[in-house]
Design brief:
With about 425 residues, the protein is an alpha+beta fold. It has 14 helices and 17 strands. The termini are far apart. It binds magnesium ion (MG). Magnesium ion binds near residues 122, 124, 179 and 186.
């Protein structure tokens, strides 16, 4: 691969964003002029780790974010800028709890066993007014707004600018729609190897926000921005490949899933409660998972640990052979930690030959009580979820104790901050006690 400065000259890149995602999913970056990029590519761009959501102190030495040249994306709406995903290093080694490093470690573990995980993600988002108080389209009021053609076409300019960008980048986008909540949209591009999808997801969120802003709107991936509307999920479609073949494929099976596939699903079900603080990482996330029925008639999110065939009311759906859809993650899920956790749980399932039990064929929204005794419930709030992550043997072994400790520490801090906030609800219900 030619030097980044040479690529910059060829493609007219004036600046590079050297960028990493911290534990809370925020993109942190330095904007580096092309003349300085080759030095930075070698030694990394310097950051004070404590100033972002990494588990560090102000006394720690510099974090150096070393860009991955393969991840280069030229901003389609500002081609003079090249975006690079970077790996945080400190004291001459990768920061063990930094999200992209966590996924790379998991990816290497899978490769040692001959596996490559591929993912496709469905990032739902809302287009809001710039102050974030309401959806941007006052005419978007239908009770069942999903696939609403008129509401979709009223946002044609912004949606197609994003889709054109993905076409230009070669991601293979193939459909865009209005989703189940007023003001909510989803755009799909081709699935690929998990780290590549993670880089794209991190960039996609930035791109959607940037292009929406250009159009005078505000995009949000917040899991549940409006109490009465369907929340934003980030459903992940997962397959595992071995020697160029899909190891989840079995045409002879009723659902088209191989033994390896069932074991992976079994592992994911066993660890679902423990990874919930990763797939659903905010206080707000639990208002999506445990929501009452919405205006449209369904929340489209699970609250129990179950799997099924082509039935969207369960946590894991097998829509067709060779893959499954994990419907638990939401829009706040960290693009790197989510696939890392899925892979950790799935590989553990394969190693233990985990049995997911029988596929359930009931409507979980109306017949949840018919699920077999012992069906596990997902945690009801972030604190419960964090405690389950903290106690997870699988996550400590697979993702590393250093990561789990760092994550639990920072997330507990976030929970405490929330718990100390006095709400209107409390005043309303306690003032006259
Ligand atoms: Mg959707």
């Amino acid at each position: 691969m030619p030097a980044l400065s040479e690529i910059a000259r060829e493609r007219g890149i004036k600046y590079f964003l050297i960028s990493y995602v911290d534990l809370f999913g925020t993109l942190r970056a330095k904007l580096v002029p092309a003349v300085a990029i080759d030095g930075m590519a070698k030694s990394g761009a310097g950051f004070a780790g404590f100033a972002s959501w990494l588990d560090m102190t102000p006394a720690d030495p510099d974090v150096f974010a070393i860009p991955d040249p393969d991840s280069l994306i030229q901003l389609p709406w500002k081609p003079e800028v090249g975006w690079l995903a970077a790996d945080p290093w400190m004291n001459g080694k990768p920061v063990a709890h930094a999200p992209r490093n966590v996924l790379k470690r998991m990816k290497a573990k899978a490769e040692k066993q001959g596996y490559v995980m591929k993912t496709g993600v469905e990032c739902e988002f809302f287009l809001l007014q710039p102050d974030g108080s309401a959806i941007s389209d006052a005419a978007d009021t239908a009770a069942k707004p999903c696939y609403d053609q008129s509401a979709l076409m009223r946002r044609y300019d912004v949606i197609t600018e994003i889709c054109d960008a993905m076409l230009e980048l070669g991601w293979g986008p193939y459909q865009n729609d209005h989703e189940d909540a007023n003001g909510q949209f989803e755009m799909n591009w081709n699935y690929d190897e998990a780290l590549l999808t993670a880089d794209r997801q991190a960039f996609f969120k930035y791109m959607v926000k940037s292009i929406a802003e250009k159009h005078g709107l505000r995009a949000t991936f917040m899991p549940k921005p409006f109490a009465n509307l369907t929340g934003s999920g980030c459903h992940a479609h997962v397959s595992l490949w071995q020697g160029g073949k899909n190891a989840f494929d079995d045409a002879k099976d009723e659902l088209g899933l191989s033994k390896t596939g069932y074991q992976f699903v079994g592992g994911l079900m066993a660890a679902a409660q423990e990874i919930c603080a990763i797939t659903n990482p905010t206080v707000n996330s639990f208002k999506r998972i445990n929501a009452p029925v919405t205006l449209s008639g369904a929340t489209w999110s699970p609250n129990s640990v179950t799997f099924t065939g082509n039935n969207r009311t369960h946590m894991i759906r097998v829509p067709e052979g060779g893959r499954f859809e994990f419907r638990l993650p939401d829009g706040a899920a960290n693009p790197y930690l989510m696939p890392a956790a899925i892979l950790a749980a799935g590989l553990d399932g394969i190693a233990r030959k985990a049995d997911p039990g029988k596929a359930l064929d009931i409507n979980m929204y109306t017949e949840g009580h018919k699920a077999p005794a012992g069906t596990k419930k997902l945690p009801l709030n972030l604190l419960d979820a964090i405690r389950l992550t903290d106690g997870s043997k699988v996550l400590r072994r697979e993702l590393g104790a250093e990561f789990v400790d760092a994550y639990v520490k920072l997330k507990t801090g976030e929970w405490n901050d929330y718990a100390r906030t006095l709400t209107d609800w409390e005043r309303k219900h306690t003032l006259d006690c």
